[in-house]
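Weekly modeling sync, notes
Attendees: S.R. (lead), two postdocs, one rotation student

Agenda item 3: backlog of single-chain predictions. S.R. asked that every request posted to the team notebook include the full sequence so nobody has to chase files. The rotation student volunteered to paste the first one in as an example of the format we agreed on. Action items at the bottom.

Example entry:
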Amino acid sequence: MKAVKLPADIYRQCVDIAKSYYTLIRRRQEQEEMILQGSPAADGQPKGSGTGNPTARKAERLIVVKERNDQKIRAIEKALYRMGDKCAQDVIRKNLFEGVRMAHIDLPVSIPTMKRYRSKYILYLAQELWEI
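Predicted structure, as returned to the notebook:
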């Protein structure tokens, strides 16, 4: 694989997205619950002219946000799968997803190798997110 250098802003965005993996998973569950629950019960107070459907608009916004969240989750998981090597996947899980510093990751690889894994993963993630 030819070495590709991502622009710093894209690299940073990908790192931030990868680090938020577990948060994205939790958010997906919360969004599913919000969509299933629908709107809160009416409290009997007047809400204006009655035109429009705020519940439908809220549901539409939730669905759009949920789809973007799901897209990020799929990209993170596809990029991880593309790493192939289980050791590389473990490094990515521990370092990016769980926030463990490379010096504290107890795997049979050197820190320079872990850095190569991380760079390769971030490139894969950028490709999955933005099809570059």
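Discussion: group reviewed the output briefly. Residues 8-36+58-130 form one domain.
Action items: rotation student to repeat for the remaining queue; S.R. to check formatting next week.
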